[in-house]
Fold:
Amino acid sequence: MAQEKDLQKIFEEKIEKEIKIEPKDWMPDEYRKNLIRQISQHAHSEVVGMLPEGNWITRAPSLRRKVALLAKIQDEAGHGLYLYCAAETLGKDRETLVQELLSGKAKYSSIFNYPALTWADIGAIGWLVDGAAIVNQIMLQKTSYGPYSRGMIRICKEESFHQRQGYEILLTLCRGTEEQKAMAQDALNRFWWPSLMMFGPSDKDSAHSAQSMAWKIKRMGNDDLRQKFIDQTVPQANFLGLTIPDPELKWNEEKQSYDWGQIDWEEFYNVIKGNGPCNKERLAARQAAYDNGAWVREAATAYAKKKAERKTKDAA
Amino acid sequence: MERKDWPLWEVFVRSKAGLSHKHAGSLHAPDAEMAISNARDVYTRRNEGVSIWVVESKYIHSTQESDVESMFDPNEDKIYRHPTFYDIPDEVGHM
Amino acid sequence: MEQKQALFNYLLRLGDNAAILGHRLSEWCGHGPELEEDIAIINTALDLLGHARSLYTYAGEVEGKGRDEDDIAYLRIEREYRNALICELPNGHYGDTIARQFLFDQFNYLLFSELVNSTDETVAAIAAKAIKEIRYHLRRSTEWTLRLGDGTEESHNRVQQSFHDVWMYTGDLFVQDESDKAVIEAGIGPDLTLLYPVWQDKVKEVLKEATLEMPENGWMQSGSKQGRHTEHFGYILSELQYMQRAYPGCEW
Structure:
């Protein structure tokens, strides 16, 4: 029987050699905890993230937009599902994870505590929020935990239409009337900074960043990912003819990258703490779905049990 | 205590006729019928499949990490199971 | 009645059924009883919206006034929408949604099974594609009727009430007017009075298996064929049409 010390060594060798860790493999408790925290947070974000966009399904301005938006939100439900399943392979079931979300113990991405006020926000969410998520998720395809990595590969493949969907909405608005273009600019103004906050605190202030990097759960730091997102997004904003709400934003020829202003971290921590514009509504909506669905889930379980019993009886 | 949530199922999808079913992922469902329905909606939304298998996760048995050495390593040196182990002159042609 | 007008009316009804029920189902998005169920219900909504788009597009062609799917979907006044009343009823709890869905799916399945053989080639083609999806909808809503009916005591009582509540809107599905008669004569669509007994038998069969009582046929609501809606409908339109009305003539 291998000693824990040996197991630790085997584990570290695997990480070193880029061999994925799989559910039944030995892993340090902290690695497991860290993963459950990150994956479930990611799953909760997908599910809560359905809500702001969901607001606009019944008000989508054309049938083409309506079906695209519905399909996109449906994918988010799917992605939440894949991620919950990945977290479950680590030994914590979905029911428990959902309870942690509802009790406020587990977090989800703060961006979803901002309201979707206009149709242009649906464009901005697709372009910026999904854009930021994709930068993060592309990196996570190479994460060291097998089920998480496989989930991410599937999610990235499916998400490729999400950002395009959002950008196309804004492009249409920017080519439309003055009123439409103003709507697009307003959405960018409100979503730009919260989108940058999605990458989390600066690595020097991040509680989990260093360890996650060492275990190759994350493959790039928060600051690098954020910079990457800015560098790829600014030209897209220029193409739309929209102005990014950051007076300090300018191209730095020397580092071949953009310099930019300061994130309002006080706002960031306040939204995390529950003081965002929609924190209460989002959790209340999830709680209501959970509570109102309880008798339905129980009925399905009871029916399955009865049916199985009848089958056994018939066979006897 | 009886579990209140639906059990976990593993989903295997045949992507097209002639290929094996391959593990696609998991989901929760109260019974096999709904597991299949859900698998269709969750894992084949983009024409990924022509056939689906589902099995409740608790019925899957697997090797343990501690068995890996004794289970798989012994085959590493049995190179005589591979065609390249045998020398056949080129003139004989493809075999 | 002129053949073209009759066909146009007929297509609007089919299209409105799909669009309005799809709209209702889409309201579940993010609020379903389980994540898997959210995904499944959105699939049904997407199927129905797909049917509506094909039917509206064709209705626009038949009409010949250059209206596209969105003009038809978004820019009519309340009385011009011709969906069956059952499609616009609020979602209620999950049992209400399932009862509404099962009764409609059973109707829609019988109807589209006939439309596959329509003498109008476009209708037949749309139906041939849609029937596969509708068959699946019916399978799902049948299974859920069984689960809720024969599940727990609570679910049984709740869904039994749902069937009682929705029952008075089922008669409206089978009402026929001049447009229907013209469409039947031309072999474009089936005679609904012939489908009604089949529908009743099928519904009875499933409800029985679900240990549910078939509601008595009492007074039935009607009016959808004249565009006379329930009070709920105006709210659907105020959301559906909000953007198009607030910003007329824009591209989206």
Q: What stands out?
A: Chain C has one domain: 3-218+231-246. The two ends of chain C are 37 Å apart (CA to CA). Chain C has eleven helices and no strands. The longest helix of chain C spans residues 35-63.
